[in-house]
Amino acid sequence: MPLTATTILICAGGACISAGEESVKQALEKEIEKYALNDVVRVVETGCMGACSLGPLMVIYPEGVFYQKLTPQAARKIVEEHILKGRIVKEYLYKMPTGEVIPEAVEKLPFFAKQVKIATRNVGYIDPLNIEEYIARDGYFALAKVLKNMSPEQVIEEVKASGLRGRGGAGFPTGLKWELTRKSKGERKYIVCNADEGDPGAFMDRSVLEGDPHTVLEAMTIGGYAIGANQGYIYVRAEYPLAIERLNAAISQAKEYGFLGENIMGSGFSFDIEIRIGAGAFVCGEETALIASIEGRRGQPRVKPPYPAQSGVWGCPTVINNVETFACIPPIIVNGANWFRSIGTEKSPGTKVFALAGKITNTGLVEVPMGITLKELLYEIGGGSSTGKKIKAVQTGGPSGGCIPSEHFDTPVDYESLQKLGAIMGSGGMIVMDEDDCMVDVARFFLEFTVDESCGKCTPCREGTRQMLKILDRITSGEGTEEDLDELEHLANVIKDTSLCGLGQTAPNPVLSTLRYYRNEYEAHVKEKRCPSLKCKQLIRYVIDPTKCVGCTACARVCPVNAISGEVRKVHQIDNEVCIRCGSCIEVCRFGAISKVSP
Amino acid sequence: MPDLCTTGERLLNELDNYISSIGAKPDKLISVLQKAQELFGYLSVEVQQHIADALDIPVSQVYGVVTFYNFFSTKPKGKVQIKVCLGTACYVKGGDRVFERFLEELGTKPEEPTKDGHFFIHPVRCLGACSMAPVVLVGEKDFYGRVKPDMVPRIIEKYKEVK
User: Fold this and answer.
1) Chain B: residue whose CA lies nearest to A437
2) What residue of A is the nearest CA neighbor of B149?
3) Which residues of A169-187 are buried (b: 16+ CB within 10 A; e: fewer)?
C-alpha cells in the first residue's frame, strides 16, 4: 500500500449512497486528478459511519476533519481549499444546535462521543475491500491466538465467560450454544452466520457486512475451530447486493492470505465458507427455516427440539449466530472475557448496535453499552424529535417487538428490562414515533407485515394473525366495537401460546404492547369513532379555515380528485365525500389554512 | 426482430452452464432459480420444468420453492422496476402515500406491470436506508431518499424513455 499524506474516508453506507455519495466521490477523484494529487491523497470508500442523517459525509485524515451534507460542488471546493491550501471549509462542517461549528466532530459530537464500538469497531474506519487494513487493526490476531495457543474448549470457556448473548434478538448465551454443539455427536458440523436481516428498520448487520466483512469471516473460523466444523455458510438476504459482493471479495482475500481454506496458518485446521443468498422470506431469519432454505427448500420452520445444536444443516449439529454476535468474537478473544464484561450490565455484557430511524434528529447507526437508558439513547445521542413534536413512543424489535411509551424512557436497555415492558431487544431497530403516529395504525402495520410473511405452516399464525388484522382494519375504519378489543387480546394470547416458531409467537407483541399502553387510543377509535393522532383515513376530515384561506387555488389545483372548489381569491371548500385524504393540499398550502379533524 | 427461439435457447444454454459450474444438486435450487430469474426476468413453467429436469427433482418441488419466496416471480415484470419501501421507518414518514401516488400516476396495481409493460411497482419491506425515509429504488441502483408524493411524477418521467 503506498504511503499517502492525506486519506479521505468517504462513507459508502446505504444512506450515503442514496444521498448521492457516488457523484461526490467522482467529483473528488476528478479534482484530485486535476491537481495531480493522486500520489499524496487517497480516497477510501468505507462502510457506514453511522451518522446517516448528515450524509453524504467524509472524514479527512490526519487532521480528522468531518465534512457533512456533501455535494459534488462541495467536494471540488474541499479539494481546492482544504487539500491544496490547508484551509478548512467551514460551510460543510457540522453545526452544533448552538451554532458553533466543529471540525473534529467525530470526537466531540455527542452522537459519536457517547458510543462504544466493539462490533462496529472497524466500520467506517477501514477500506472493507482491503484485508491489510483489517489486519492493521488487529484483524486475524484473534484467529492466530486461537489456533496457536488455545484448545477448542478454552475458546468456548472464554466466550462463555464473556457473557456474550445472541445479538439477533433472543439473547441466548453464545458460549453455551457453542458448547452444546461441540458436545453433540456428528460426523460433520456446521457453523452458520444469519445475515437475513429482515426486520424493517434494522440495518446494523448490513453495515458490518459491508463495512467490515473480514470480522465475520474471522469469527466464523474461530467458531468452526471451537465446535469442530470445517464448513460455514453465510445466509445473506438478496436485498443486500453490496454486502454479498464484499463478502465474496473478502473470502477470496482471506484464502489468498491463508486465513481460510486448507491448513489455516499452518495449524492443520481447515475451514471454508460459502455464501447462500436468501430469496426474500422474512421467516428465514428463524433458525430452522433458515436451515431449510440453505438446503434449497421452502423456508418453513419445524418443531424444536431437536435444536440445531443437535440437528441442523443436513441433520448435522449446527451453530447459528447473528452477524453482530460474530463481530464481537474477535475482540473478546484478543482482549479477554473480563474486558468484555467490564462494558454493559451484569446480565447483558458488552454493547448493542441500534438503528435509529423514524422521527428522530440523528437517524443512523449507533453502538452503545448495554444498560444505557432510552433517554440517553434517544435524546443525547439521537438528538430528540425531528419534527418539533413530542416523542410519543419508540418501537423496538420490529414486528416481534413492542412500543415503549415515553414515560418509560428511564429504562436501561438490556434484554430483561425491555422484555418486562412488553417489547424485546430484537435485532436493534428503533423507530421513533411522535404525536402524529396512531398506535392502532402502527399495530395494524406490523400485523399486515406478519400476515404477509407468515409461512402458513401452523394454523394459529396463518389464520390467527389474519383475523387480528381484520379486527384492526375494522377498528381503524371506525367500525370496531368494544368486544373487538377483548377478542383481539384473546386471539393475541392464543397465537402467542400456540404458534410453532418465533415469528408466530411474537407476532401479537405489537398489538399487546400498544393495547397495554395506549388502550385509550383504541377506545377512542371504537367508542368515539375518532383517531386522536389524525392518522386513520376513514376517521378524519380535511377542513379549510376560512379566516386563513386567501383563495390562491393552489390546493384545488393539486387535488388529484377535484374535491376542492372555490373561486379565485375566495375561501375554498373541501368536499369530504370526494376527498381521498391524500394530504397533498396541506403540503401545498402556504397559509396553513388546511387541517385535519376527527371525527 | 431477433428470433425469440434462439434467444430462449441461448439463455437456457447459459443457465445449463451455470448449473454445471455449481454442481447439479437439489440443494442448489435457490441459487439456480436466482440465476434463471436474472436471465429470463421471470420463471415460466417451461423454465421451472427445465430446472427440475436438470436437478433431477419433481417440478412440484421447484414450483413450491418459487411460490414460497417473494423474490421469485412467475409472471413477466416490467422493464423499469420501482421498489417503494414500506418498512416501518418509511411508513411513519409517509411511504404509504408515496406508494399510492405511484399506483395512481401509473394507473396500475402493485406487482403488476403497467399496460404497456414498461413499469412495475413493488412494495418492499425495508431497503435498509431508513435514515433517508421514505425511500424509492428504481432498478438496482437509483436511490431516491426523502421522497414526497409530489416528487413521484418527476421520478416516473425520468424513466419513461428507458429501453
Assistant:
1) B92
2) A584
3) bbbeebbebbbbbbebebe
